[in-house]
Amino acid sequence: MTLDPRTPILVGGGQINERSGGIEPVDLIVSAAREAAAEAGSARLLELVDSVRIVGMLSWKYRDPGALVGERIGAVPRTTGYTGSGGSSPQVLVNGAALDIAAGRADVVLIGGAESWRTRMKLRAKGERPEWTVQGDSVPSAPILVPEVPMTAESERRIGLDRPAYLYPLFEQALRISSGRTDSDHRDHIGSLWSGFSRVAATNPHAWTQREYSPSEITTPSPENRPIAWPYTKLLNSNNMVEQAAALLMCSVGTAQQLGIPRENWVFPQSGTEAHDTYAVAERAALDRSPAIRIAGARALELAGIGIADVSLVDVYSCFPSAVQVAAKELGLALGDPSQPLTQTGGLTFAGGPWNNYSTHAIATLTTKLRADPGAWGLLTANSGYLSKHAFGVYRTEPAATGFRCEDVQARVDSEPTTTALTSYEGAASIESFTVVYDREGKPEKGFVAARIATGERTLAVTDEADELARMTESDVAEAKVSVSADGSFRFR
User: Fold this and answer.
1) Is a pLDDT exceeding 70 seen at residue 462?
2) pLDDT digits over 169-222, tens only?
3) Contact 111, 13 (CB under 8 A)
4) What is the pLDDT of the chain when averaged over all its residues?
5) Is the confidence at residue 164, as pLDDT, over 80?
6) Which of left, alpha, beta for 74 (phi over 0: left; psi -120 to 50: alpha)?
7) Going by DSSP bridges, is the β-strand pair 144-146/79-83 parallel, antiparallel, or unpaired?
8) What pLDDT sits at residue 1?
C-alpha cells in the first residue's frame, strides 16, 4: 500500500515515575518527551515539534506549559494548547492531533501531562509552596483545546455529593443491586477484579505500585487500607498521590520517513469518537449504565471496520471498579477473560492515577504493546467527571484502509431516555442506590441515597444521623422507604 505522506502516526511514548520528588511538572514532561523520542528512535524529532498540547494539571498552574516544554526540548512550536480538567482529554488530544496532521495543520505534535501531587501535598502540610516556574502576566494563556468537564450540578452540589469518591460508590451499589448479589458476594466480585488489575501492574515497569494484591487485601479495611465510601476501601480508589509524567509523539508518515524512524515503530490511529452522558448524575436513566459508552464505543469500532471480538489489547479507564464494570457491560467485554484483559497498565489504583493524565500513560503502554504484536487491534477508553464524558481510540500497527476517522456522536446519545431530577423535593421515596462515607478514623460520617418517587423522578438526599447511618451500614437498604426533606436530608420511614 502506498501511504499518503500526511497519514498520522504515533511513533513514541515515554513515561516517568519520579520517586524522589521535588521536580516540577513541566520538567517531568520534558523527561517523558525524551523517553518518547528514544522509543521512536529519533532524538531530532523533538527539535521538529511544531505543536505542544498539554493535559490540564492540578499540582501547579502555568499560563502556557507547552511553551516551557517546547523551550526545554529545543523546539520552536508554532502552536501550544492546554486542556481543562477531565480524564478523557488525552484521547481527545490524540484524535485532534491526528486530524491536524492529516490536514497539514501540524506535522510533529507532542502531547504530554504530569503531576507532582505528592510533593505539593507534603509541602502544603508544612504551609510551604515549591519554588517552581512562575510565568508572569505578560505570557499569554495557552488556548484551551478541550474544555472543562462540568462537575457541579445543583442536584449533587446542594447535598455535598461533590467528588468522585462519593459518586462512583453509588454506581457500584447500583451494579450490585441489578446483579442480585449480596454485599459480601459483591465485595468478592470487585476484589477479584481489582486483584487482576494489580497483577498487571506488578509486571508493568511504569506502574507506581508494582505489587499483586489478593482480593481480600483489597476489600478488607485496615489501618493502611481504610474505608472511604461503601464498598470502596483506599485500594479501590484511584491513587493520585504520585509523581508521574507521560508524553506521546505523533507525526506524519512523510516526516517519519525523512527522519528514518523505523517502520516497526509506527502505530496508526484508526478511529476516534467522543460523547457524554448527562452531566447531572441525577438525570441519568440508570446509574449502572452509560449510553455514551455504548454508542461512542460501538461507533469507534465501526469506523475502524472491526467488532469488539477483534480487539486483543484493551485498556478500560479504571478510576474505580464501577467505571470498569459499566464500560465492559456497554462494550460487550467480559470481566476476567484472560484472552482480553481490561487493562494494559494495571489501572489508576496501582499503575497510578495522575489526575487528568492517566490515559496518556495508557496510550503509551498500549502502543508499545501493539509494536510487539504487529497486526493486533488495540482499544482505549477514557473517562471524565462522574462517568460523564468519554473518548475512544482504536489503534493498530497497520494503516487504516480509509484513513483515520473521527466522529462526535453526541446527537445520538442525546436522543436516549433520561430521568427527571428533582433538585428540591419533600416527601416519600424509595432507595435506588446508596453509599456511606467514612471519616479518616473509619467511622461512618454521612450517607447518600439516590431515590425514586412514586411517579418515577429521582431525588438525591443525605443524612448524618447516627441511627440512619447504623441502619445503612448494618443492612441492605435497597428499595427501603425514606422521607426526604426540602433541605435534602432524609430519614427512614
Assistant:
1) yes
2) 999 999 999 999 999 999 999 999 999 999 999 999 999 999 999 999 999 999
3) no
4) 97
5) yes
6) left
7) parallel
8) 66
pLDDT in tens, 20-55: 989 999 999 999 999 999 999 998 999 999 999 999
Measured distance CA(397)–CA(269) in Å, rounded? 9
> pTM for the whole thing?
0.98
Residue 66 CB contacts under 8 Å (≥ 6 apart), including other chains: 52, 53, 54, 77, 80, 81, 82, 142
Place of cell 513541566: 26
Do 29 and 9 touch, CB atoms closer than 8 A? no
What per-residue confidence (pLDDT) applies to 366? Answer: 98
Give residue for cell 500500500: 1
Q: How far apart are the first and last CA of the chain?
A: 70
C-alpha cell at 131: 519554588
